[in-house]
Amino acid sequence: MMYRKTVLDNGIRILSEQMENYRSVSLGIWVDVGSRDESEEESGVSHFIEHMLFKGTRNRSALDIAKELDAIGGMSNAFTGKEYTCFHAKVLDRHFPILVDILSDILLHSVLDPHDIEKERHVILQEISMVEDTPDDYIHVLFTRNFWMNHPLGRSVLGSTKTVSSMGRECILRFMDRFYRPERILVTAAGNIEHDTLVSAFRPLLESLEEGGDPSSRSKPRITGGVSCLTKDLEQVHVCIGGKAPDLASERRYAGALLNTILGGNMSSRLFQEIREKRGLAYSVYSFLSPYIDTGLLGIYVATDPASLNEVLALVHGEVKKILDGDITPEDLGSAREHLVGGILLGAENTDTRMMRLAKNEFVFGRFVDYDEVLSDLERVTVEEVVSVAREAFGDEGVSLTTLGPLREEDVDLNYLKFSG
Questions:
Q1: Catalytically annotated residues
Q2: What number of helices (H) and strands (E) belong to the chain?
Q3: How far is Cα 373 from Cα 14, in angstroms, rounded to an integer?
């Protein structure tokens, strides 16, 4: 594997990891912008743009784009996150020049036709409705809204019905003019591609983009915590509990990953075993990490019968309390570490994973991070560091609870949110 990086004169970064024994290439064009960069009135515009860039360019209709990608057997997609947007595809190496032409055309020459904007507006409104009709998805929207209240990081990437309904072409163009600038654009590729070939393909297409745009910095969110119970006529009550976790660049990020694994990150985890396997109180129960550039969230999700909620909260409280009291053996830590190592190394065999790693490490660290470094850092994590991260997450003042279902706040025993003492 060979990593190389080139920076064009206008600031666009091109990164590659050559994997000569592969027949495929994964290519991504990234923009360092996401929903946390939007004002309240612009909420959802990054995601709207992601949709619109596939709806036709000066050279191709939406159907042409779809047909050309299908004709080369490409697996293409795009996604918008809270902090970046990505347009990516995976193709056989011999089709790489065609893929470069298509993705660069999408980025540079999309027409943003007003008629297409109206059609796509309805598609996105349906997407918002679909999430709101899916309780195990919608609870996460509600939870983050409560956790980072009155901050862009707490808003849904999709935006709201109100903002998407009123969003016009001028709003989209203004946002792209501010953020779709060379210094925010990153091209990453992994697979059977030589770096010089990659740079030669993109340099003439991208080097004419002018520098500039809005240099505004992101505001750091403040965790609000608290309790929010949304009453809805459902068969189950859906619950999220969480607190602060290490950010993406923190030296404690590996301790956070190990804590998440032990707590609820796999089938042998404590919450899964206690709540599902031993007592059958839930089908779905897990913990999750949501790290960002300057903050992070460690959360627990469970869906259960409303009559069982307080019993489930008592079990969550008990398992968290054990960890806060240092009840983690070296064997626990070793098993969690091996689980993570397995996922990391198995993912390393996938060109998509490597392409995305290139981008994320560049955005967070500004450099390439090899797998040996990751494994070495994981190996050094101690039980004390894992406990320390747990104590930060579940300190009484910062713990947040959100429920969705046929319960009110007075039905919830909030004493189970007090983990210290």
A1: 50
A2: 15, 11
A3: 22
